[in-house]
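Entry 12.
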Amino acid sequence: MRFFLLSLGCPKNTVESEGMSELLRAAGHKATEHPEEADLLIVNTCGFIDLAREESLAALRELGEKKGADQYLIAAGCMAQRYGVEMGKMIPALDGIIGTRRWREIVVLAEILTRTGNSGLISQLPEPARRDPQCHPLPRHCPGMASAYVKIAEGCDAPCAFCAIPEIKGPFRSKPPGAILTEVRDLVRQGIKEVILIAQDTTSYGRDWGEKDALSSLIGDILEAAPELPWLRLMYTYPQHVSRRLIHTMASNPAICQYLDLPLQHAHPQVLHRMNRPHDIDLIHGLIDRLREAMPDIALRTSFIVGYPAETEDEFQALLEFMGQVAFDRVGIFTYSREEGTKAAELPKQIPQRLKEERYERAMALQQRISLTKNAEFVGRELEVLVEGVGDAVSVGRSYRDAPEVDGMVLIGSELPVNEFASVCITDALEYDLIGHATPLSPCTPSPAGMQKRK
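Predicted 3D structure (tokens):
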């Protein structure tokens, strides 16, 4: 059979989509980028917030309206896990569902569908005789790619009041180191230049085994197993678990990108308390000071939620003041989404959407000014850039300061080999991106515009 797979949502979904694709290929099925050519139509859905669910439902409806009598439509991922067969009421054309906890059985579901045909009933997997701990190496096939995500754990135990992920993903379960090392070695053999470690909380790695700082050990094992790997990046590191040992590990290994993603969600203690998040802001300031002392050029990213229930203007102002004090390189701002089944959904004093959006705009405007100032600090310097695209005498890539898809880019005024590193002189800065030229062309001299932005 031929299959078409559309992946929506976060990098963790991307990893599972790649895994499903590889499992289907290994079973003899062939991928296609054209839905009309496929026997299986698969949408790996995101169910985290309203906008993500709307996107997932729209994609399923569009495929369902166009599918032929001999095609099967499958909803995979977060929405399938969260709503199960109830999704049939939302998508009448749906033939099968497979959730986040059993996506490795996609081949079994495909076989069930082909045996039963379009019966009008939604096919599900039978209950397993035993639970699969998902501890085997994930099959990956990444032709022509320079970067790859590696998921080091499944699920989440964090009790955040606003989040439905624990309900969708289940409890936190670390993947055994051997499986991770096998996956990384295989990716590096395929030519991957950057491995990005992800989980709901990468710094909780090993805590379900009773180890409090297993991430540092895992990083050491990865660098030893794949010494030729140029870049190793960490995402989703929760501040309360960033240890001094982890900071030392990052600072002392040149292959580790000096970049850290610290999802804080807010900066006022009372809002954080209502979120059921750690709310000692002094500890956050101390952690950031230690990170910058150990790695002066570290790029710090975070995410904040505005418009959380009962958020006052003073609490929002405290968030803006914190952003100005810390000056993160990258910030993702989100308006609060009221999620069914979460504690926050039942809180009083829900904020009107108009006010949420107004606070979003104010926070984004502040961060744009901060980001421009941070970017301007790199004008006149050289950065190693991983080139990812080229065309019309311009190349596009990322520096160590930029994670794929969520951060900025480096625009280079010449055509360079894709999926290779280049040394780039930064000549100008924008709010999110940097502009430069490959250093062999001429000395590293800032453009007049770039010099102006630094003043």
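Annotation: The two ends are 61 Å apart (CA to CA). Residues 353-376 form the longest helix (24 residues).
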